[in-house]
Amino acid sequence: MEDKTHKHVANGNCRDINIAVLGAKNVGKSAMIVRFLTGRFIGDYDPHMDAIFDTHIPVDGKHFTAHIMDTAQAQDCTTSSDSEFKEDPVSWADGFLLVFSLTDRASFTMVREMVSWLRTVREDERVPILVAGNKSDLVHLRSVTRPDCDTWAAEQGLLFQEVSASEDPASVQRAFISLCRHVRALCKKREKLSWTLQRPAVAAKLQIRQSLKNLAEKKIWRTRTSTF
Ligand SMILES: Nc1nc2c(ncn2[C@@H]2O[C@H](COP(=O)(O)OP(=O)(O)OP(=O)(O)O)[C@@H](O)[C@H]2O)c(=O)[nH]1
Fold it and tell me: In the sheet where 50-59 sits, what is the strand order?
């Protein structure tokens, strides 16, 4: 755990990615993080564990550092103004892994509320979100169906994956990597846009366009006032 105060990639650093893992209690947030970081499934996790873990991972052939925040304390982050985190996960994160349990319908409802809420509170509405339905191994206890998840995810334009932290390590790996890839793609897009806007020719063009717009507005205003 190194630097907890670095800025998210929206501020221009595509080599570091902040991921906040959110969801209801007992859905397997810590289990997924531990599985991703260590490859192991322990079974029981300290429910009061809240931390940021750093790991180096490759995405599309390039290595970068992912900072992963386990929000064990935030049972409902939408009302966590008294959160014990040093960092507010909502403004800190570049991407969100929202976890629910496929055996717990209420946790699915909470994740759906979280998506709407995140899109309201984050200025960049298209903040990357991946929803993971965990505990897919507990087939006999399942209460959230695949069509339920797929339909909702498609409506919302969200990435969705079923995972099992206990039985399917590759599914957990895929979920994290896929979210990181999405964050990086967005970061690269922003980087390219800001580079383009800084080019003198583009800046001059934008300035001319703005001047023409101002002139046109002035002209409309004059025409309107001269009719009185
Ligand atoms: N069968 C099964 N059990 C799981 C899976 N993932 C986690 N669990 C179990 O679910 C329980 C809760 O896991 P945690 O990782 O502590 O859940 P959490 O969301 O971090 O919980 P809080 O810290 O209370 O917010 C533990 O008993 C885990 O062993 C899974 O994929 N399959």
Answer: 50-59, 62-71, 16-23, 95-101, 129-134, 159-162
